[in-house]
């Protein structure tokens, strides 16, 4: 009797990585980007045969690196049995097609690599929809360019027939698919909005973990909340958002959400596709920016995250900078320097738990500083609301007039909307 076959892991592809250093680009910046591309390739399931950086005045319109250099690298790829060529920059459809002809194997760019990792990591329906949208947005302009190139050739001998119509049909189907995915994601957003309204009715504040990919956000979420979210030392280990209850000092409950990591050269359409997930960042009361304090390019990573936050329109939200991985020897000097430069800093090790008490006290203090002082007129029949205000807020003054309670209360931001119908006048106090 034959033994049942055991499942085997797919064989890892052998990849040749290619970067370009243009005039006025710093060599260290290109090398750092190539280091990151190597980590992306490893996360996607590829082994690196070689890394090559080509110095150019400008990208070649047909092959990006020039036909001579492409032919030279194709020979090196064959010698090393590389079946995958990965460029650190985005390629046009023409460049991609021409390079595949030269190399004779699959050629992809940085964006395609990221999309492949996202496709592997998405577990929820929401995550898969967002990946599908990002992939479709990436493909659509390429099909349009295919149609344009075909149309420029129309009329010649051997070029008449159904080919152009097929490209147009593919483009139309892809556009219809994008429209349907956007509808499905709108439904996801509506459900998330309902959950947020429920959270606001409870008066729980929301913290969102943001940061560069592999900074340790999921490990920190697990340590702070007792969750068991998958955490790994890989880029984009977390793709689907996770929210857990967080207990602040004084037994004050709050919510903590983990989000997808950011990265340099993150294409705009990826940010747009993951808007449903990133709405948790937009709606958060306070952001916890988790920083890998042991990373040699920590400043560049901080800047990359801040650019994405600015793109989301949340750069003015209160931020706690969580300097993570202080258990690593390389972090000591960085922590001292970054603490002097950044506001609201907590130095922690999500792995060992060091510094987490300080982080929780800083989080509670940040919420207090971001509270609003409201003057309210609330009917006594709203006993539930009055009790909740005493529990979640701070009553500064109160008096009673018949069936009305006149209060001055300091409340979390999450309570402002709920209190709005009873508002007499108010002022905001912030850090």
Describe, in plain words, how this protein is organized in 3D.
The chain has four domains: 13-117, GTPase HflX, N-terminal domain (Rossmann fold, 3-Layer(aba) Sandwich), CATH 3.40.50; 122-186; 204-368, Rossmann fold (3-Layer(aba) Sandwich), CATH 3.40.50; 371-428, Alpha-Beta Plaits (2-Layer Sandwich). α1 packs parallel to α4, α4 (110-121) runs antiparallel to α5 (125-153) and α5 packs antiparallel against α6 (163-202). The protein is built from 14 helices and 14 strands. The protein is α/β, with parallel strands linked by helices and 431 residues long. It starts with 12 loop residues before the first strand and ends with a strand.
Number of strands: 14
Q: What is the assigned CATH homologous superfamily of the largest domain?
A: P-loop containing nucleotide triphosphate hydrolases
Provide the spatial order of strands within the biggest beta sheet.
Answer: 6-7-5-8-9-10
Q: Number of folding domains?
A: 4
* CATH architecture group name of the largest domain: 3-Layer(aba) Sandwich
Number of distinct helices:
14
Biggest pleated sheet: 6 strands, mixed
CATH class placement of the largest domain = Alpha Beta
Radius of gyration: 26 Å
Which spans have pLDDT < 50 for at least 5 consecutive residues? 149-163
> Can you write the helix and strand succession as a string?
EHEHEHEHHHEHEEHHEHEHEHEHEEHE
| Overall outline | elongated
Structural class, from helix and strand content?
A: alpha/beta
Proportion of helical residues:
40-55%
The average pLDDT score comes to 82
First CA to last CA: what distance? Answer: 74 Å
Q: According to CATH, what is the topology of the largest domain?
A: Rossmann fold
> Which strand-content bin applies to the residues?
15-25%
